[in-house]
Every structure is written in C-alpha cells, then in structure tokens.
Amino acid sequence: xxxxxxxxxxxxxxxxxxxxxxxxxxxxxxxxxxxxxxxxxxxxxxxxxxxxxxxxxxxxxxxxxxxxxxxxxxxxxxxxxxxxxxxxxxxxxxxxxxxxxxxxxxxxxxxxxxxxxxxxxxxxxxxxxxxxxxxxxxxxxxxxxxxxxxxxxxxxxxxxxxxxxxxxxxxxxxxxxxxxxxxxxxxxxxxxxxxxxxxxxxxxxxxxxxxxxxxxxxxxxxxxxxxxxxxxxxxxxxxxxxxxxxxxxxxxxxxxxxxxxxxxxxxxxxxxxxxxxxxxxxxxxxxxxxxxxxxxxxxxxxxxxxxxxxxxxxxxxxxxxxxxxxxxxxxxxxxxxxxxxxxxxxxxxxxxxxxxxxxxxxxxxxxxxxxxxxxxxxxxxxxxxxxxxxxxxxxxxxxxxxxxxxxxxxxxxxxxxxxxxxxxxxxxxxxxxxxxxxxxxxxxxxxxxxxxxxxxxxxxxxxxxxxxxxxxxxxxxxxxxxxxxxxxxxxxxxxxxxxxxxxxxxxxxxxxxxxxxxxxxxxxxxxxxxxxxxxxxxxxxxxxxxxxxxxxxxxxxxxxxxxxxxxxxxxxxxxxxxxxxxxxxxxxxxxxx
Length: 593
Description:
The structure is a single chain. The chain has 593 residues and is α/β, with parallel strands linked by helices. It has helices at 5-20, 67-70, 95-105, 118-129, 131-143, 145-161, 197-211, 272-275, 279-289, 305-313, 353-362, 377-388, 404-409, 418-421, 452-460, 499-506, 510-518, 535-544, 550-557; strands spanning 35-43, 54-55, 73-77, 82-87, 110-116, 166-172, 177-184, 187-194, 229-236, 239-250, 253-262, 294-299, 324-328, 339-342, 368-371, 392-398, 427-439, 444-445, 470-471, 485-496.
C-alpha cells in the first residue's frame, strides 16, 4: 500500500527496513569514488524535496543529530547507493555538515547536497516525529484495508440515504470512541457510535490517502495533528458525489467534517426558483448578472453560497460564446462550459496558490472570472483590477448580512477602498442568503399549536394571517423520519446598488444605505414582492405561506420576533392590490442582453 508525499517516503523506508530486518541507514558499500553534488538553487518548501525512502537523521543510530543540529542539517536516503544532505546556506561549510558527510562516505557511493530553508527542516522533522506512531497505524490499516474501506463507505452511504448535508466524525481518543453526527435539514443528529476509536481513525485515514484526489490534498499524507482538507469523489447508488473534507485536532482527539456535494458535469443545476428565490428576486438577479460590475453572494458557512453561484453562472447571457473561469479552494461542483481551476491551501500556509491562480486566469483571455472567495488584500487588489478591466466578476464572502458585506470587504484584513466599492461600475449588487428547513406535509395549523405570544406577534406586529401559518408536528411522521421537517429552502435579500447607496458607501454610511434599501419596501410581509425586504422578511413570507415553522426560521437567523425592527412601507398598500408581478427596477447601469 503506497502512501503519497513526504511522510509516505518516511513510512515506506521504515516499513521496508522492518520487513527486511535491515538497519535503516543501510549496510556498508564497496569502496567507490565519493561524489558530492550541490544543487543550483534553494528549496524553500518541504513539498519541493525529491522523492526519498527515509529520513536517516531522525532515528537513534549513529546518524542521529541533536536538536540544534537538526535546525541546520538532515540526510535522506534516495536508494541503496545515493543520499542527499539537506543543509541551510549558513551551515554549508560548518563542522557539523562536514562531520555528517564524513559519516556517510563509507556507506553510500553518491552524495548530493541541497541547500534548503530553515522552515523545510522544521517541517521535515515535524513529520518524522509522527512516523513511528503512523508506521504502526499503517501496518494495521494494510492488514485491515477492507474493513477500513467498508467502514468509511458505510458512513458515506448512510449520509446519502439520510439526505444529510454534512457528516461530523468526532473521534475521542480519551474515551476510545467516535460519534457520527449527521446534519439533516440543518440540525445535527448522532446516528452511530464506533468503538474502538482506532476503527474510525483507520477509516478516515484510508479515505484521505486512498480515495481523495491527490491534487486536492492540503498535505501529501494524513496527519491527525494538522487541520487538513481535500476532496473525495465517490459514487453511491449510481449518483456522483464529492465529499469535501475538513479535519481539525481538538482536545482529546480530532474530528473530520465531510460536506456532501452531489456533482457531475451533466447533472441538473437547480434554478433560482427551485432554490427558494421568489419571482421578483429571480428577475433582479438576472438583471444584476447582465449588468457591469461584480455580484457578491454573502452568507454563513453552509448557507448554500456555492450552490447559488453555480446557478448564477448559468444565467450569463451568451455564455457559450464566453470564457468563464472558476477558481475554487478546492473545486466543489462541476460546471459545464466553464474552465475550473481547483487550488488547495496547505496547513503550513506557505505561499498562496489562490493568488497565483487568479493571475493565471487573467492571462487566459477571460470574459467572466469567479474566484471562490476574496480573503485578503492581495486577492482584493486582483479582483479590483479584474472588474476595472471590464470583466464580469462573481464571488462569495462570509458575512452576517447584506450590507455587512461592505464592512467585510473594507476591513483591515481585506482593505478594499470605499471609493472603489462605491464607484459606478464596480459593484452591481449583493445577495445575502441562508437556508432554513421546510415543513413536512404533516405540519399542524398554527392556531391552537403555536404559543400565544408568538401568535400575537405574527398577527399584530407583522400582519400575518394565522390561519395560513403552520408549525412542526412533534414526533413528525414516517415521511420525515419523525423530524417534522423535510428539505431546506433559501431565505435571501437581493440588493441592487443605486447611485444614492453608492454615495453613502463611499462616505462610510453603510447603515444609512441599508435604511434606504429597506425604506423601498412597498408590500406587506405576506406578499411575494421582496423589494426592500430583508432576509428575515423573506422568512416572514415563507412563514405566512405555511412553508417554514416560525420558530425554526427565527432560530436559524438568530433574530427574535419581539426585537426585530419593522420599517414603514414606502407607499400604503391598497386592499386587494397585486403588485407582486411588477417588474423589478433595472440597475442603473444595466446592459441589454
């Protein structure tokens, strides 16, 4: 069983030595002319090291080095006759270096020297510290590969069967057990426990090493002491999925979170209406995509931002005649008719492949560039250059609301200029969204089943007809597996930037810009026209329509019916008037399709 990467090289060397009952450093060789070669450059990243069998200077033999010597030296065996000495530039002619070379001369016919950065040696020895423990684990997995594979596939298949969005494998080495918690319709439920914990550890180790796409791994080899990520393609019941892996060490153990993403380049892409957007929101998103400037989708983790972005790119006019480039960390969904660049940041954080990919994309004659997320000032600068160069851009960001997206982009970490964000052709609009569980058909009428205080607020403060509101049935039914909810729907606010809003943003008056947006509301909360309505007010409409439970909605959005501030209507609503089919106002720089 082959383990890729640097740690794999260490492990394979130790395993081979153990199986042959040979000393790790190798036996004496016939006298030969000793050859020393020095590489021309400096290796600055541990992943830039050549393939090797074993780190010779990490053991306890006569080649072992002190802690101080390890800060400047290492030796790795390439094969039975060749060894590479890794040395920092300052230690190139030190006594320690010359002494190590002298010890290697009687054992290996060919010695090469490579200059490396200090951080390379630190990472190399850090990985080696886990090697003894990992060798034992791999010997166990090699003997029980079938069991590890079966355990992991059982976990994944149950997630698909339960229609889970995520699986949390929470491994407690202190308690010698692992809990499998699945997020179903937005809530975590513990559906299984694995004992001993080593069974779960072997299963996730197998998945990371054998099933994950090699280019998606943040590190070449599994390490439970690091925060790692990767993508695992898998087929279950004829359906193609990508399991997006994120692992994190914690006190007493570690956990692995797997996001279930149904993929396939020919798979059906849901429409905005199918996601849960109202007709007026759908029309406005289409207009924003046809306009100059960027469209930014904000939301919390797990709010469906990437899914909405995948749908949005299908709405680009004449898309078959345009070069559309996605840059994601890593790629989640296959998107037909686009160029997808999947990048992966490492746990060490050395370098930034995202920035390199963005620079590459700008040299590929793009019409539309979709970076997965703007995370720092350098990324923001490239995104700004891209939009100012006349390209259409779409991206996502983590934010707590629509206008807080502006605060996020102008924060110290990202540092985008307010003059840029408030310029006429830079920002077309903002989408802010979340997901909330939908009621099962077994739901109960609110009247008589909803607490008196909430019922009074829905009728008095928000003007909802309680006769149309429904609530979760305790214990549910067989169709919803006793949960009372089935599936999820989008709640969203879609904000078109206007001239007045841009002026306020340039001056730093985001709250006034938000108030201007909200004062444009022209219909009651039970009307599908979402003009000027917030995400909470979209939730009120779905409560009024009997689609979501009032408390489920308020809890998901972290709002209370009591404290939520209601803005007055822009114009009085005439009884019986229907304004929901009025077209959404076009952005002030809209371009005909």
